[in-house]
Amino acid sequence: xxHRKSITVGIDDRFFNIPTVVGGKQVSAKKxxxxxxxxGLGRGFKNIESAVTAxxxxxxxxxxxxxxxxxxxxxxxxxxxx
Length: 82
Description:
Blueprint: E1 5-11, E2 14-19, E3 21-22, E4 25-26, H1 29-39, H2 48-64, E5 74-81
Parallel strand pairs: 1-5
Antiparallel strand pairs: 1-2, 3-4
């Protein structure tokens, strides 16, 4: 199973779980955000708590073998607004 790492970022009053592994390589938060913006961010979450909860839930499901959405893996909270 591939490791899925992400950061939670605030952009334009929404919060997003952004993968930090891009093209199979770990990248900086800035590069991860840029890649996600080029790909499309989706709707995001209204608050950071909801985003972090979703990331943690997805991480637990991933460890249990349940199907997961690859766009939001293990979480590392990045609280700086970008």
